[in-house]
Amino acid sequence: MQKFDAYIRNSVLMAMLLVLLVLAGLDFLFTIFDELGGTNERYQTADALQYVLLTFPRHVYDLLPMTALMGALIGLSVLASSNELVVMQAAGVKTERIVWAVMKPAMLVMLLGLILGEYITPPLDLRAEVNKTVANSDEVVLSNFGNWQRDGNEFLHFNAIEPGGVLHGVSIYSFNEEQKLNENIIAESARYENDNWVLENVRRTLFTQTDEGLQTELTVLAELGWDVDLSPEILQLMIVDSDSLAISDLYFYARRFSEQGQDANAYLMNFWEKALQPLTTAVLVLVAISFIFGPLREATMGSRVFTAVSFGLLFIILQELFSTIGLVYQLNPFLAVLTPILLSGLLGVYLLKKAA
Predict the structure, then answer these.
(1) At a CB cut-off of 8 Å and minimum separation 6, what does 351 contact?
(2) Is the pLDDT of residue 53 over 90?
(3) Region 164-189: what's the mean pLDDT?
(4) What is the pLDDT of residue 257?
């Protein structure tokens, strides 16, 4: 029996590796062509190639569930086409044991996904985005992008951030409890030292409501201390999409947004999508196995591959649909992410029981 397990495991694992090689290779080529189309005098071919290489691990991470689905289906299809699965079952190998044998390489895919998503892709994506914005900038040291953030009753905007954490073009709007503007600070730049921000070349305007109306007081300062709960590391993470953040960073952002009274569902949605990716992979592999023992038992290899791709795309569409519905109607992010996974899992279990 151990030999049967090893044979099934190795067949499925090789199929998964082959699928990953093909999908990742095609994705790599398309990404290069797309990125080269955005080159200019500052952002040159070498910069584009570096960006593609740095973001490539994230693309691999995104492809892993589809890789597991197609790899399991193709690996088992090869065994089914040569009647090896029939021989194994005739020799007393139960369907549950075959399922477990196929799940072993799927676990390797899950582990790879956790390592890539949590430890490898986030820093590489951050470096890629910083390098790209630096290359596209008129000034060599600047990363030009605008970003709004909230800290209590303060709303702040900065135009650019250097890789070292220096901010440029800082605007701060402070509101009172009645949501009326009482202070506006515009600074040319801000530097972070000794765990505190120092604004430079500051124009500070105070707004005071009196019986005579709104009064303003302008003060020009060379430097001004700025007490805000935002470190350079947090600000640098803002230049990447939430899809590129690690699971721990997504949870941190979601909690921060909730503490600020802001809608954190988008971060929670991404958090649960990444946290539940191992379960997604396992469910897709289960569906692949159920197809082989169920409706695709007598199908051709081409039909099986087409079915795998079609179901994978359908699953992605369902995920996007439930995520969008969850964000629009403020549904529980965990349930919005879990629902398509449960539906797919129930389908796999139903097909396996029907084929038994």
Answers:
(1) 287, 290, 291, 293, 294, 295
(2) yes
(3) 87
(4) 77
* Amino acid identity at 231: S
What pLDDT shows up at residue 143?
44
Are 120 and 160 within one domain? Answer: no
At residue 103, what is the residue type?
A: M
CB 294 within 8 A of CB 352: yes
Residues 100 and 169 in one domain: no
Q: How many CA atoms lie within 13 A of 58 on its CB side?
A: 22
Q: Are residues 14 and 96 in the same domain?
A: yes
- Token pair of 123 as six digits: 């820093």
CATH no. for residue 207? 2.30.30
Helical spans, DSSP H, in the chain = 2-36, 45-81, 84-90, 95-115, 121-136, 232-237, 247-259, 265-275, 277-293, 301-328, 333-355
Pair 209, 278 in one domain: no
The tens digit of pLDDT for each residue in 177-206 reads 888 889 999 998 899 888 889 999 999 999
Query: Residue 140 has what pLDDT?
Result: 37
Domains in the chain, number: 2
Asked whether residue 254 is assigned to any structural domain, the reply reads no
Q: What local confidence, expressed as pLDDT, does residue 142 receive?
A: 40
309, 278 in Cβ contact below 8 A?
no
Place of tokens 């099934």: 8
38 with 120, same domain: the answer is yes
Whole-angstrom Cα distance, residue 27 to residue 31?
6
- Give the domain extent around 113: 2-136+261-355
Q: Are 131 and 151 contained in the same domain?
A: no
Contact 103, 285 (CB under 8 A): yes
